[in-house]
Amino acid sequence: MDDYTFQPLRNKYFHFYNLKLAIKECQIKLFDCKMNETKLIELPKMVDPRGNLSFIQSGSQVPFTIERTYWIYDVPGGEMRGGHAFYEMQEFIVALSGSFDVVLDDGVSKNIISLNRSYRGVYIPKMIWRSLENFSTNSLALVLSDQPYNVNDYIRDYDLYLKLKSENQ
Ligand code: TYD
Question: Which phi and psi angles does 100 have, rounded to 5°?
Fold first, then answer.
């Protein structure tokens, strides 16, 4: 085969190899979020004798565009929320009032972040297992998400979560 005939074949293999690499990269990207990618983020606090003010703007205080907001309140003593991970969704959680613990787990290590200030929140990337626990009376958890509600994005089976993570270590 002369060089001229060989060239397209070589390109074909090269593209195939690149495609395989790209798919592998995507798979790794899907599952590779680790504990060190969670972040405790300090929000701006405009101190004012009339009352303090904090704010969150898409892409500034949180590293995503805010698509959805929900809040958790009236949590009876001893109850917990969450207990799942998301395939794709990212969230940012603030204790607007009272306090609670955000228990984080990346399949290898666990971390507990106690939220009790309305000017501080925790950023949770995709594929991190989380639960909200130890709610104080009258606590209010504000949650920002980068995506609309999607029941199919939830991983609620911890064994499945660990399996997915270990397959992509
Ligand atoms: P869910 O996220 O499952 O709460 P938790 O993880 O604490 O168990 O939400 C509880 C219910 O609320 C569920 O039936 C779906 C509904 N829901 C929405 O319809 N939209 C939303 O944005 C959220 C967060 C929940």
Answer: -165, 165
Task: Indicate which CATH number applies to the domain containing 110.
Answer: 2.60.120.10
Q: How far is CA 8 from the centre of its chain?
A: 43
Residue 116 sits in the same domain as residue 147? yes
Helices 3-31 + 158-167 axis angle, to 10:
150
Residue 4 and residue 73 share a domain = no
> Per the structure, how many domains does the chain have?
2
Question: Which atom of ligand 1 has the smallest separation from the CA of 149?
Answer: 22
Do 85 and 22 belong together in one domain? Answer: no
- Kindly state whether residues 63 and 146 are assigned to the same domain: yes
pTM listed for this prediction: 0.84
- N- to C-terminal Cα separation, the chain: 42
**Cα(76)–Cα(86) distance, integer angstroms:** 25
Which atom from ligand 1 is nearest to the alpha carbon of 145? 22
Pocket probe mutation, ligand 1, options 70, 86, 143, max atoms within 8 Å of Cβ:
70
Q: 3-class DSSP state for residue 164?
A: helix
- Tens digit of each residue's pLDDT (9 = 90 or more) over 72-95: 999 999 999 999 999 999 999 999
